[in-house]
Amino acid sequence: MSGFITSYGEDLLLDLVCRRRVSPEFLYLALLTQPGNRYSSGYDIAEPTVAEYKRVVLGNAPGNWEQRGGEMANADAVSLPFYFTEPWPLIVGWALVDAPEGGQVLWAGDLSPVQPTQGSSLAIPAGGLVIRTMAYASGVGR
């Protein structure tokens, strides 16, 4: 499941390295009902509109991410705290965003389509959320 770093994500990386900007304390995992693109922002990505949906908070501290030769992956499983008590749209992608609402998309990618069903739950295993700096090479799972 491939993904990409966004234009904003590239700019943030340059700022972190060259200007010694402080990285965000939290990242937010958004689920997408339409694929994002390289220029997506947190204001224009297509997220589920069901009442129980909200972005999942991911701590951005040492130990939460593992570096694996040119890529980073989540060190722990990510539980998506949705109980799917109402019908959900098809989930086709993901985005890492710098705010709980709106904000800027840092990375985004496609998923094999997932249709959440009532009474089910979703989780991303440790190592399943992979981000890279190359525009064509980020993904969830493999």
Nutshell version of this structure?
It is built from one helix and eleven strands, in the order E-H-E-E-E-E-E-E-E-E-E-E. By secondary structure, the protein is mainly β.
Topology of helices and strands:
Layout lengths: L2 E3 L1 H12 L7 E7 L23 E4 L5 E3 L3 E4 L3 E3 L10 E7 L7 E10 L7 E3 L4 E4 L6 E2 L2
Antiparallel strand pairs: 1-8, 2-3, 2-7, 4-5, 5-10, 6-9, 7-8, 10-11
Descriptive notes:
The chain has 142 residues and is mainly β. The protein has one domain. 8% of the residues lie in helices and 35% in strands. It has 1 helix and 11 strands; from the N terminus they run E-H-E-E-E-E-E-E-E-E-E-E. It has one helix at residues 7-18, and strands at residues 3-5, 26-32, 56-59, 65-67, 71-74, 78-80, 91-97, 105-114, 122-124, 129-132, 139-140. The strands form 3 sheets. It has a 5-stranded antiparallel beta sheet with strand order 1-8-7-2-3. Strands 4-5-10-11 form a 4-stranded antiparallel beta sheet, with no helix packed on it. A two-stranded antiparallel ribbon has the order 6-9.
